[in-house]
Amino acid sequence: MLHVIDLFCGAGGFSEGARQAGAVVVLAVDCWREALDVHAANHPDAEHWCEEIGTGDPAELAQRLRAFAANALPPGAPVHLHASPPCQSLSKANRASRDTSGGLRLTRFALDVIEAARFDSWTVEQVSAPAVRGLFDARGVLYRHLACDKLGVPSIRRRLIAASETLEDMQECIDRPLTLRQAMDRADMSAPPGFEVQRDGSTKDTRRRLDDVSYTVTTRSPILWNDARRRELSLSIATIKVLQTGRGR
Ligand SMILES: C[S@@+](CC[C@H](N)C(=O)[O-])C[C@H]1O[C@@H](n2cnc3c(N)ncnc32)[C@H](O)[C@@H]1O
């Protein structure tokens, strides 16, 4: 059984996927107390460290992670180290406060921790930005570009996944992802008259049809848009849940 250590775990998106794939999350680290509390509610047997990663020496954190694994797990138990450093300052969705060099700092730090900790396998998730590809290339790490809708997820989210081993070529999912209209339908939401397109909530003039896969879910996206009245409408929480999980009714 694979044991997972989740750095920058947030409320636990990666951890939940790892659990569904049959792994056990044993340690989760984040500096956001409330998100960590949600994680702890879903993974009560895991240990939770509320701390700011990246302030000290990566070798020191690596050493603490190794000591944790040696104390908490049977000898030889395989450990996977995952890190999802924050992406806001790198993401295209955040043009206003994009800060590429600052944004890469924690990704570099995560790669340093991974190198020093030498667990059995590892992954790093980041947004698909040229600066991130440049960093991965410079460090000689293997990575793949994932288009979530090609894997059946009902949103057009794009991500880079760097990993200790070559990831298998991902086959396109046989099931087509839900369109936004189908996701709304599963959540018993319907578009009022005139709200005929979706936008990504930014100031850009974005547009997709309701019968397309949704824009990536963020605090501002997607929204329904009424062109004639220039009015926007938020999606219901139930619709967002379907977009984030693919599940609903
Ligand atoms: C991309 S999100 C993580 C998403 C999460 N892995 C998931 O799958 O749901 C980045 C996380 O990094 C955390 N974070 C940002 N800076 C941090 C730091 N210096 N130390 C620890 N956590 C940090 C944020 O609180 C946020 O939860």
TrEMBL record:
> Which Gene Ontology molecular-function terms are recorded?
DNA (cytosine-5-)-methyltransferase activity; DNA binding
A Pfam short name: DNA_methylase
List the SUPFAM superfamilies hit by this protein, alphabetically: S-adenosyl-L-methionine-dependent methyltransferases
What InterPro entries is this protein classified in?
Answer: C5-Methyltransferase (IPR050390), C5_MeTfrase (IPR001525), SAM-dependent_MTases_sf (IPR029063)
Q: Which domain of life is it from?
A: Eukaryota
Q: Which UniProt keywords apply?
A: Methyltransferase, S-adenosyl-L-methionine, Transferase
EC number, as in UniProt = 2.1.1.37
* One record GO biological process: methylation
Q: Which PANTHER family match?
A: CYTOSINE-SPECIFIC METHYLTRANSFERASE, DNA (CYTOSINE-5)-METHYLTRANSFERASE 1
Provide the protein name.
Answer: DNA (cytosine-5-)-methyltransferase
Q: What organism is listed for this UniProt entry?
A: Tribonema minus
